[in-house]
Amino acid sequence: MSAETSRVALVTGAGQGIGRGVALQLAADGFCVVINDIVADPSNTESGAYEVKKTIEGAGGRAEVHRADVASAADRQAMMDFVAEELGRLDLLVNNAGVAPKERTDILKAGEESFDRVMSVNLKGPYFLTQRAADRMIQWKRAGKVGHPRIVFITSISAYASSPSRGEYCVSKAGLSMAAKLYADRLAEFGIPVLEIRPGIIRTPMTSVVKDKYDKLIEEGLLPIKRWGEPEDVARVVSAFARGDLDYCTGQAIEVGGGFGIRRL
Ligand SMILES: NC(=O)c1ccc[n+]([C@@H]2O[C@H](COP(=O)([O-])OP(=O)(O)OC[C@H]3O[C@@H](n4cnc5c(N)ncnc54)[C@H](O)[C@@H]3O)[C@@H](O)[C@H]2O)c1
To answer: What value does the mean pLDDT take over residues 206-217?
Structure first.
């Protein structure tokens, strides 16, 4: 499959977890997938970005790995240059890369270092990567190189649910939710739909460190659907959006959370 004939998707933070699930689904849907991650070791094909590439290629799909830190302006520019020079088009950007605070700390005590780290990866990175990607998408759409470019922001139920022991994460996701609306508004005239997806409690390496806590909460009835979410639950929504099924929903958020957001009595 050549990049001239296959649509191209860039998935940030795709070396594991939700991003991995999204990359595998999009490759199965026929996309050539650019697997971005801050960690990418070509000598390791058992885990991380090159495992995802190997798995996609083993199933007959096409994938490229591009190591980049979404928090770095130089890396974001280099990543878009890579897409332009190697593939010549971008049909879907999935802003997925994100980090949790290294330590949960009460908002009354938490320091600025963690705030700056979380905000730069979770908010500043995707905010400005989308600016660069949208610029290219507009150009490529005008030139007839892409038909229907689209953009996804993976936020979180933490965009509205308060966790005072990781306030910087909640604030970053609330900000990213607004970024999705802003880009949806601005890019509508160019025919570029934008979707926010809010995962709930999804089984990934990020949540493995709080597994016992969430096992207990789910068992006690936190979620109407009494199970963990899986990366595939999120990936199926990205797939529907990438197919064009949700284009008139631009600027909206879809929660993939087993009913977490339902107010109950
Ligand atoms: N797992 C959940 O329950 C959950 C819930 C809501 C939202 N989310 C969000 O979904 C996204 C993916 O989460 P996950 O659980 O798969 O996390 P994860 O930690 O398992 O995987 C994240 C991936 O992003 C990469 N990454 C981290 N910083 C990066 C950077 N600066 N540049 C490029 N790549 C970087 C990591 O190396 C890793 O491969 C995150 O934005 C997260 O906030 C996750």
So the answer is: 96
